[in-house]
Amino acid sequence: MPATPPLASSTASGPGPEAEPPAPGPGHRTPDRARPVGPPSETVPSPRRGGAALVASLLGFTVITIDVSAVNIALPSIQNSLDSGMSGLQWVVDAYTLMFAALMLSAGALADRTGARRAYTWGIFLFTLASLACALAPGIGVLIASRVAQGAAAAIVMPASLALIRQAYEDARARARAIALWTVGGSVAMAAGPVLGGLLTDTAGWRAVFLLNLPVGAAVLGLLLRVPRSPRRPAALDLAGQLTAVAALAGLAFAVIEGGHLGWTSGPVLGAAALALVSGCAFRAVEARHPRPMVPPALLRDRRVAVPLAVGFAVNAAFYGGIFLLGLYYQQLRGMSAVAAGLMFVPMSAVVTATNLVSPRLAERVGRRRVIVTGQLVFTGAMLAMLPLGAHTPLWLVLVLLLPLSVGGALAVPAVTALLMDVVPQERTGTASGLLNSSRQTGGALAVALFGGLLSGSGGVFSLPGMRIGLLMVAALLLATAALARLLLPRG
After folding, report:
1. Is residue 438's pLDDT more than 60?
2. What tens digit of pLDDT does each residue of 243-293 get?
3. N or C: which end of the chain has fewer CB within 10 A?
4. Which of 22-31, 107-116, 149-158, 325-334 is the least confident region?
């Protein structure tokens, strides 16, 4: 997984300053349904304008998500083209997801502070430029640096896209269905990305995977001309908290990625682990003392917020880890082409789409908690079902064993997202969205780091025992968060 455009931006051709109303003063409190500044005809959402905002949000969310899964299929080609090892391939994936996760914390506040549309416009513009830089990268170092820029831009896009939907749909039921469509876009993109990645890699080369983002970015910028400016809301930008969060996540990822290659007791790995620990403690101290922290402690103390964050972490760890694992399994262990490997994800894409559409209605009927818990248990089954995979497992059986992987996350994510958007005040939707997606991306990044280290056997050969250890670890995590959801989330 809005209204009439303002006169100030009706002739705009791209991102830039907008004549938006000033932010409220320190003593001002914006009510949940406050009317934005401006004439009624420019601020009251209409179905047509709301549709433009939903399509723009959906396309942006889709393109930043599809980039992850499409790149996974292109990794062997990137390895051969740029002469990279497994560690380099892990960084190509995790440079994106780590910046995505870390900057998401401030990006949510940025969407609240500057207005969702303005933040979204800049995010899409920067993501498109970074995609061009990825496509032109002459070496693995430049590609990784460009992926960092892509991830930073995607972090701005994600919470702003969800905030645009919240702005467009005041009715809770209509909003839940719009969020479901938004989630469908992300889930389908994640599942269908390998197909596009395989086709583009085999027909035009891996650079075409990044060039695909250019026309989509241009289309989103065009749609945003029809979306009204968003109200600004008071939200502090916590620089010290952001820097310590980036340092903690970068140190943790380095320790997990390089630990599998350099050794867990090597100096750089121990140093990175120490950096992660110290930075994590500093982050907690900074947020506790800041008058307006980017991660409000009161928000995290609400179990209706904390549990969805844990569930999002576990679900993305399973899904990102599974996609990364399968892309290498098909091509490195079974010798399949990029196209053939991508086509193996087509059934998954269809099942994910169907399940995402069913999930919100099922949640309305039986309750969100039950749907969230069931989704995680199904996902646990998916991890266990993949344990018997080997070099000669019949392909039809591989497809059957992957069905639970398609269903689990598609059941849980719409219910988790809708629950979180309903329990936080409207002025905190950008912050809450940033928290959820930061947690999800962190789970995905660490899963890729874990699987990459375990999959690289002696001589760089794909390691089946390493794969099975990783699957068991993720299954245990899913079981733990399912228990938390069952015990701590309300029945309704």
Report:
1. yes
2. 888 888 888 888 888 877 777 888 888 999 999 999 989 988 888 887 777
3. C
4. 22-31
**Two structure tokens written together for 424:** 């936080």
| C-alpha span between 271 and 285 (Å, rounded) | 21
Report the distance separating Cα 91 and Cα 68, nearest Å: 12
What predicted TM-score, i.e. pTM, was given to this entire model?
Answer: 0.73
Predicted confidence at residue 346, as pLDDT, reads: 82
In the chain, the amino acid numbered 261 is: H
Number of Cβ within a 10 Å radius of residue 51 = 16
Distant-in-sequence, close-in-space partners of 370: CB < 8 Å, separation ≥ 6? none
Amino acid at 3: A
Residue 83 has what DSSP assignment? T
Q: Give 209-252 pLDDT, tens digit per residue.
A: 999 999 999 999 888 887 767 666 655 667 788 888 888 888 88
| Cα gap 490→492, rounded to integer Å | 6
In angstroms, rounded to a whole number, what is the distance separating the alpha carbons of residues 213 and 81? Answer: 21
Q: Compute the Cα dihedral for 264, 269, 270, 275 and give only its sign.
A: negative
Q: How far apart are CA 264 and CA 258, in angstroms?
A: 8
SS3 state at 178: helix
Dmax (CA) of the chain: 67
